Amino acid sequence: MLVQVALPVPLYRVFDYRLPAATQATPTAEPSARPAIGSRVEVPFGRQTLIGIVVAHIAAADSSVPLNKLKSIYRCLDNEPILNAAMLKLAYWLARYYHYPLGDVFGVILPTLVRQGKPLDLLITHWRILPNITDDDFHPNAKKQKQQFDMLKLHGERGASEDVLLLEGMQRPFLKTLEEKGLIERYIEPKQAPTPVKLAKLPLDLNDEQQQAVSTIIAAHKAGRYTGFLLNGITGSGKTEVYLQVMQAVLEAGKQVLILVPEIGLTPQTRARFASRFAADIVLLHSGMNNTHRLQGWQDCRTGHAQIIIGTRSAVLYPFADLGLIVVDEAHDGSYKQQDTLRYHAADVALYRGVQYNIPVILGTATPSLEHLKLVDDGKLVECQLSTRPGNAKPAPMQLIDARLQSTHQQTTDDGARYDTGLTDAMIGAIRQTLEAGDQVLVFLNRRGYAPVLLCEACGWQADCPRCDAHLTVHYSRQNSSNAYLKCHHCDWQAYIPAVCPDCGSQNLDAKGIGTTRLSENLHAIFANPQTSKVLYPIIQIDRDTTRRKDSWENIYQRINQGDPAILVGTQMVAKGHHFPNVTLVCLPNADRGFLSADFRSPEHTAQLMIQVAGRAGRGDKAGRVLIQTLQPDNALLLKLVKDGYLSFARELLQERKMMGLPPYTHAALIRCEGKTLAVTMQALKDAIAILPSNHNLAVLGPIDAPMSKKNSRYHAQLLLIAKERGQLHQVLSHWWQPVLALPSAKYLKLTLDIDPVGW
Ligand code: ADP
Ligand code: ZN
Ligand code: ZN
Question: Could you say which of 15, 387, 522, 572 has the lowest number of CB atoms within 10 Å?
Answer without folding.
Answer: 387
